[in-house]
């Protein structure tokens, strides 16, 4: 007498759910990495062992060819103080992060520091960890 099993197991597995999941993860990673530094300048920052975890409201960058940038947009030095004041008027947080390339003369960095000091902004000098 032969006993028949009424339940058969389907040995095929659908891979469409796994494909959809992998596609969504890939899209998430692509979007997340582009949002980290959308308009970053390539600067070689000096090294320091002291690092702050605070997020500044705005950034001023100085390249080695003495070009000034306010939040990624090029600004002539003569208009930097006015543009910075207009930007700071929008926020209660008066913190500025200064990103200066290693090759920038210290006098140019001091000029930006004086602008921050004259307007009573808090200034953070950005560095790379050692």
Can you tell me about this structure?
The radius of gyration is 26 Å and the shape is rod-shaped. The strands form two sheets. A five-stranded mixed beta sheet has the order 4-3-2-5-6, with helices on one face. It has a two-stranded parallel ribbon with strand order 1-7. The N and C termini lie far apart (80 Å). The protein has a domain of 83 residues: Nucleotidyltransferase, domain 5, CATH 3.30.420.270. The mean pLDDT is 78. Helix content is 35%, strand content 18%. By secondary structure, it is α/β, with parallel strands linked by helices. The protein contains three helices and seven strands.
Topology, element by element:
Elements: H1 16-36, E1 47-48, E2 58-62, E3 68-70, E4 73-74, H2 77-88, E5 95-100, H3 106-118, E6 122-125, E7 128-129
Parallel strand pairs: 1-7, 2-5, 5-6
Antiparallel strand pairs: 2-3, 3-4
Question: Which terms summarize this structure?
Answer:
Nucleotidyltransferase, domain 5, 130 residues, rod-shaped, 7 strands, alpha/beta, two-stranded parallel ribbon, 18% strand
């Amino acid at each position: 007498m032969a006993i028949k099993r009424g339940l058969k197991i389907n040995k095929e597995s659908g891979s469409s759910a796994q494909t959809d999941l992998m596609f969504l993860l890939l899209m998430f990673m692509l979007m997340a990495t582009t949002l980290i530094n959308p308009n970053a300048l390539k600067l070689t920052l000096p090294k320091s062992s002291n690092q702050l975890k605070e997020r500044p409201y705005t950034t001023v960058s100085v390249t080695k060819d003495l070009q000034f940038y306010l939040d990624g947009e090029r600004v002539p030095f003569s208009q930097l103080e006015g543009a910075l004041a207009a930007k700071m008027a929008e926020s209660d947080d008066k913190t500025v992060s200064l990103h200066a390339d290693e090759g920038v003369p210290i006098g140019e960095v001091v000029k930006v520091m004086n602008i921050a000091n004259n307007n009573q902004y808090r200034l953070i000098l950005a560095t790379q960890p050692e």
